[in-house]
Design brief:
Shape: globular
Largest sheet: 4 strands, mixed
Radius of gyration: 21 Å
Order of helices and strands: HHEHEEEHHHHHHH
Distance between the termini: 18 Å
Number of strands: 4
Number of domains: 1
Oligomer: single chain
Strand order of the largest sheet: 1-2-4-3
Strand content: 5-15%
Length: about 300
């Protein structure tokens, strides 16, 4: 009998990611305050943005993808699968959204297990079998149960904010003159670049681990890791045939997708937030051996 166990590795990584991101971000704010930028204004702005992100991030993500929340009457098949998986997972059933896009993919969004949405594209629905679709939905449901969706969303916000400041640092270049610290204006882009780099590395590390964890969660919930292997291979193979323009339209969601919307030959793949399909397949095959009693 395979039971769901808390992934302490993921929990530690999520807490560590938030701690180090908060640390470098507050250091950045302190430096900006030192050279003359109003720390009070910065703190107020950041607090408001974080609150808005916390309460409305799911709506923003769904809107950015053009996702439409569907009722149980509209998609009884998807809700039937989700209901069964949620009983096994022991959590409230998320809402379901459909994205009318050819790019085959799925993602989860929401701030907690009771306020979450799992979205799938029409491209995904048209290419997967019943068991493969269930495996993908179980993967996304694992993200919800692990509570890693909001963590990655907040981490991405901090990274984006640092990049925005780096790109627009000239707006603050004269703000330190009132305190006689005009010679230190160059610290702003340097610090912002540092925050962005650290954020990127932490997000990449967390995101890769959380995909392995969600893959394992899918295997536990369905008892069929081979079906997720099949689904990953199908999605990855189909991604190669999607026009580049279509991939670029959704690339901002890559950290959330089950497989990033990039071409395998693209240089962007080097900076992917996901482990390779080959690595995930290898891990799932090991899980299947463990489940069948033929582990190490």
């Amino acid at each position: 009998m395979n039971e769901w166990t808390r992934d302490w590795g993921l929990q530690v990584r999520m807490l560590g990611t938030l701690f180090f991101l908060a640390l470098v971000y507050f250091v950045f704010i302190a430096v900006l305050a030192y050279i003359g930028v109003s720390s009070f204004v910065l703190v107020i702005v950041v607090t408001i943005v974080l609150l808005l992100q916390y309460f409305f991030s799911d709506r923003l993500v769904l809107a950015s993808m053009g996702a439409r929340i569907v009722s149980e009457q509209e998609e009884p098949h998807l809700y039937e699968i989700m209901t069964r998986l949620c009983v096994i997972a022991g959590i409230s059933r998320p809402g379901i959204a459909i994205v009318d896009r050819a790019v085959p993919n799925a993602f989860a969004t929401g701030r907690n297990t009771k306020k979450s949405i799992i979205a799938v594209t029409t491209g995904l629905l048209s290419m997967l079998s019943q068991d493969e679709l269930e495996a993908v939905l179980a993967h996304e449901l694992s993200h919800v149960k692990n509570r890693d969706v909001m963590i990655i969303t907040l981490a991405s916000l901090i990274s984006t904010a640092a990049f925005y400041v780096f790109r627009n640092f000239f707006l603050y270049s004269h703000s330190g003159s009132r305190n006689g610290k005009e010679n230190f204006w160059f610290i702003i882009p340097i610090m912002a670049a540092g925050v962005w780099v650290v954020s990127f590395l932490l997000i990449k590390a967390l995101s890769r681990y959380r995909e392995f964890s969600a893959d394992r969660g899918s295997a536990v919930l369905t008892g069929k890791p081979a079906q997720l292997v099949s689904a990953l291979r199908k999605i990855s193979g189909q991604m190669e045939r999607i026009p580049t323009t279509d991939l670029r339209e959704v690339e901002g969601m890559n950290a959330f997708f089950i497989i990033p919307a990039i071409s395998g030959s693209s240089i962007i793949a080097l900076f992917s937030t996901h482990p390779s399909v080959e690595q995930r397949v290898k891990a799932l095959e090991q899980i299947e051996r463990e489940m069948s009693g033929h582990g190490l």
